[in-house]
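Revision sheet: structure tokens.
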Amino acid sequence: MSVDPASASVGLVEVRTEGALAFVTLSQVGKLNAMSRAMWAGLQRAFEELQTAASVRCIVVAGAAGHFCAGGDIAEYRDFRFAQDSLRHFHEVEVWGALQAMLDCDVPMLAAISGNCLGAGLEIASCCDIRIAASDARFGAPIARLGFPMAPRELQLVASQVGPAIARGMVLEAAVLDAPSMQNCGFLNRVVMPQALAAEVGETTLRIRALAPQAARHNKRTLRALRSTLAPAAQDDAFGYAASAEHREGVAAFLDRRAPVF
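Predicted:
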């Protein structure tokens, strides 16, 4: 993948550059940009390459067609989630590999959030430095409805950004919050009317690009060092629920379009 100067795409993660500005767009038509395994791999590759793109001063992460990302692509889950080894590999290698590539990137990152920002989308947004949302955006991680918990490192990442009280509500009662609530808890920098989101993002990127790029990279490395207490790799029993009845029931109920019975 080349990230400079032409546009390119990796699976359903689209990467485009315009001078010093790069756009990373999550795109899965008909699924509100739910993250497939191919998209996680594409996201990791995109940020590993953007990290070395010296001309890029700011990265905008967004979703296509009016939504940021509605979570994971549950249609794939039956293929790997019910065996502990493959479940662990998915979260600790595929998902965390992509999130870690974002966290390791020294280029300032801005999340432009519209529509649904749930589960995987919330995790991706949590890796960004500045988050601007449309007033009608929705945030949460209602995976308890699917019969499984959030992976340990992913939960710690989200909790570090939304705060422990909000994180507990999200994972324990499947709370879905609006944009003003997420601004009040400090997760969002700004909330604007939906029709003003593109202009607000554009103005913010202009301010970032006008500043000293190496100073920005140094600041990001310092900020990363200050929050270097993310959990280590999960213990062996963290994914012991793989073959559980409620895990299978939650996924099956979603795919069958019915209410789960736990």
